[in-house]
Recover the amino acids of this structure.
């Protein structure tokens, strides 16, 4: 968990900005009226209290217990940081809570205990059982973590898991099963060398044994050497895994002819010459973080027949606990399991292994800039962004809980449960990940027209760190350097272009002449052309036009018309396009929503709306999503004949004729775009069918802009845009006062667009 000094300030600002920390509690019921409050608290709250008092199981019906997990730690073994104490561990526990919510829609209270004695820890947590539906133990040192989990499982009747042990065991088991299948080796015959003998290593070995491995085939090494039965220092959890006395003494010797190396220790401990002595088609899981026991390239350079996994995301086959714990708890909570047992862990591992063999969704390929990921040596385990994880693993865990007799609320309708799981998470936590990954695959030159700005420079630093683009800054170098020095922003040797410097007089003259030629029949004189190109947003557009850049970001400190005008005057529209449009992406819990036209066309004609819809559909597809388009009005399918209704109706018919395979319907009121039950009941002919719309086309600028701004503010939805559609080259105009995150998102979109120009 070490972090570079460059990112230190950003990390601290991220955690301190706005509300300190990363999580908050929000009400799930309306509190708008006095009646709401009287139901939420006194006197209405007495009714569910009395129901629960009569039947304690009703606590799951009337409270959040069934979807609430306690992430509990004493900070004695924080990954990569060691024994830093409970307070210092809190950012990590909050982060774990974020992952639970983002990946499986589970709510979390993080609890940091100032307790190191195992019995005191157990007593404290046991008293919390009425609050939580499950307990995730985290970052507790070995061997106390074994005792704590063991005693809590014996005392409590809710699912408990120490993720540091079992998470790695479950995920690596899935990877191991698939790797062994690829190299055609049987687990019961495979010989293992394990580097590390802590909580994760012990749990891995135990789970591998349940998968069929044999204890006599394990050689386990810790900092004191081979774990063998003649060592008096072994704790009661490690001792049963010890090998016979007098076996191979060194790891280098044990590696000769070994089939599998499992690293859960320290970086650099596995040497290339050791890998060279392994059996044919060896398997190496080097999972120390952030530095593996051996580097990926280093190991592959020694053995071409090697299958390798690490804990890192920048190499194939990442063993990441986020592939397991959110979905394991999801399944356990949904059947109200009394524990997380070995059957559930094995079910999770096998389900994860099977998922890797299935065709990979395009949305995952896009995220990793792959044309077609498929099962093989470099894809033995699914990617963390795979949207199928929540259904695949949660359902497998729930079934295993039922079959092993620990489920107290069995699932009866599995199709309905699968639909429920899929609905829990929209694509809001995925879409920008895909765009960012794609941008990183082929960064482009993006010129920032307003570089003498702190937000822009912070965004540029993030763009550099993430490898999203190759930034070019327009501005006075002295001013930019001063801002960077004051705020500790290291931009390295980034290109800063002081276009007003005397050295650039020739380029200014060239741009002025080009601009004059473009606009001389629009009333511009040469003197006016020279004046215009000395403005940063005009100069930036000229850099793009003359192929000195691949995209432009501007508008942070300018009003929208002034910011977009250079793009229209210099870059112009794509061939065949008559109207440029503006689109916003809103990241809602139900998934991404695309709004058009929100920024440019005041009262578009039928032909304009047809073109705007086609441009929007094309843009949505760049996000690797299928557009499901609703043509909005105050009228439903001919119920009124006002100007806007007629316009949207006519545009819908034209688009349906031109694009018969599209999912597009209208004209309709906005709520029908989402209320599929009401739509099917009253308008069963609608082509949206059982879908909800993700692309909304409005009859005029006023309605689109009002709807977008109301939803953005009232619903606290993250937004991206405006995204300009129809320009010949990528120019994107920021909203006044856009945040650093919004700037970075727009840069990524500009890069992806530039990749296809």
């Amino acid at each position: 968990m070490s972090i570079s000094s460059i990112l230190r300030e950003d990390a601290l600002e991220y955690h301190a900005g706005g509300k300190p920390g990363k999580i908050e509690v929000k009400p799930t019921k309306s509190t708008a009226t006095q009646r709401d409050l009287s139901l939420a608290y006194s006197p209405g709250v007495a009714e569910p209290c009395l129901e629960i008092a009569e039947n304690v199981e009703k606590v799951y019906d009337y409270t959040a217990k069934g979807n609430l997990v306690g992430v509990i730690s004493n900070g004695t073994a924080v990954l990569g940081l060691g024994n830093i104490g409970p307070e210092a561990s809190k950012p990590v526990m909050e982060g774990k809570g974020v992952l639970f919510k983002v990946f499986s829609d589970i709510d979390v209270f993080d609890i940091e205990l100032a307790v190191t004695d195992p019995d005191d820890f157990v007593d404290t947590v046991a008293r919390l059982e009425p609050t939580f539906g499950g307990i995730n133990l985290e970052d507790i040192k070995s061997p106390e973590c074994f005792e704590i989990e063991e005693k809590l499982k014996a005392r409590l009747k809710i699912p408990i898991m120490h993720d540091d042990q079992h998470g790695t065991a479950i995920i690596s088991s899935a990877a191991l099963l698939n790797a062994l299948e690829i190299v055609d080796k049987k687990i019961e015959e495979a010989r293992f060398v394990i580097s590390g003998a802590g909580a994760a290593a012990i749990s891995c070995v135990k789970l591998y044994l349940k998968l069929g491995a044999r204890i006599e085939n394990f050689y386990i090494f810790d900092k004191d050497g081979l774990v063998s039965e003649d060592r008096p220092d072994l704790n009661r959890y490690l001792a049963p895994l010890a090998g016979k006395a007098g076996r191979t003494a060194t790891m280098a010797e044990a590696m000769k002819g070994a089939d599998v190396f499992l690293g859960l220790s320290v970086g650099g401990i596995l040497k290339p010459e050791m890998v060279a002595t392994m059996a044919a088609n060896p398997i190496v899981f080097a999972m120390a973080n952030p530095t593996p026991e051996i580097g990926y390239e280093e190991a592959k350079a020694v053995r071409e027949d090697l299958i390798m996994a690490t804990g890192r995301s920048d190499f194939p086959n990442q063993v990441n606990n986020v592939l397991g714990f959110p979905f394991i708890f999801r399944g356990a909570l949904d059947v109200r399991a009394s524990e997380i047992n070995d059957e559930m862990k094995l079910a999770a591992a096998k389900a994860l292994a099977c998922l890797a063999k299935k065709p990979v969704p395009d949305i995952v390929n896009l995220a990793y800039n792959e044309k077609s990921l498929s099962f093989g040596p470099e894809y033995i385990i699914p990617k963390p962004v795979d949207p199928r994880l929540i259904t695949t693993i949660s359902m497998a865990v729930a079934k295993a809980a039922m079959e092993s007799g620990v489920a107290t609320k069995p699932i009866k309708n599995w199709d309905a449960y699968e639909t429920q799981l899929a609905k829990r998470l929209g694509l809001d936590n995925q879409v920008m990940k895909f765009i960012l990954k794609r941008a990183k695959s082929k960064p482009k030159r993006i010129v920032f027209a307003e570089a003498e700005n702190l937000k822009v420079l912070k965004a540029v630093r993030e763009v550099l760190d993430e490898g999203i683009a190759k930034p070019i800054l327009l501005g006075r170098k002295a001013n930019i350097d001063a801002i960077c020095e004051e705020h500790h922003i290291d931009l390295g040797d980034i290109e800063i272009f002081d276009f007003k410097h005397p050295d650039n007089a020739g380029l200014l003259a060239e741009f002025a002449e080009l601009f004059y030629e473009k606009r001389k029949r629009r009333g511009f004189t040469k003197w006016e052309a020279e004046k215009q190109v000395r403005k940063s947003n005009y100069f930036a557009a000229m850099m793009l036009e003359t192929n000195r850049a691949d995209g432009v970001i501007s508008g942070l400190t300018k009003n929208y018309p002034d910011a977009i005008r250079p793009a229209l005057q210099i870059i112009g529209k794509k061939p065949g396009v008559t109207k440029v449009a503006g689109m916003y992406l809103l990241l809602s819990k139900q998934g991404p929503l695309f709004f058009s036209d929100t920024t440019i066309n005041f009262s578009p004609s039928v032909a304009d709306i047809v073109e705007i819809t086609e441009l929007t559909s094309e843009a949505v597809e760049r996000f690797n999503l299928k557009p499901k388009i609703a043509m909005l009005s105050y009228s439903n399918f001919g119920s009124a004949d006002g100007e806007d209704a007629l316009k949207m109706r006519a545009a819908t018919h034209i688009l349906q004729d031109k694009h018969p395979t599209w999912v597009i319907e209208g004209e309709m009121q906005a709520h029908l775009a989402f209320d599929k039950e009401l739509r099917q009941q009253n308008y069963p002919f609608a082509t949206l069918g059982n879908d909800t719309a993700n692309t909304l086309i409005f009859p005029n600028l006023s309605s689109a802009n009002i709807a977008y701004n109301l939803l953005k503010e009232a619903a606290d939805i993250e937004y991206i845009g405006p995204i300009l559609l129809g320009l010949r080259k990528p120019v994107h105009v920021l909203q006044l006062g856009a945040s650093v995150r919004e700037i970075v998102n727009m840069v990524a979109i500009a890069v992806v667009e530039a990749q296809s120009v």
User: Anything to note?
Assistant: The radius of gyration is 29 Å.
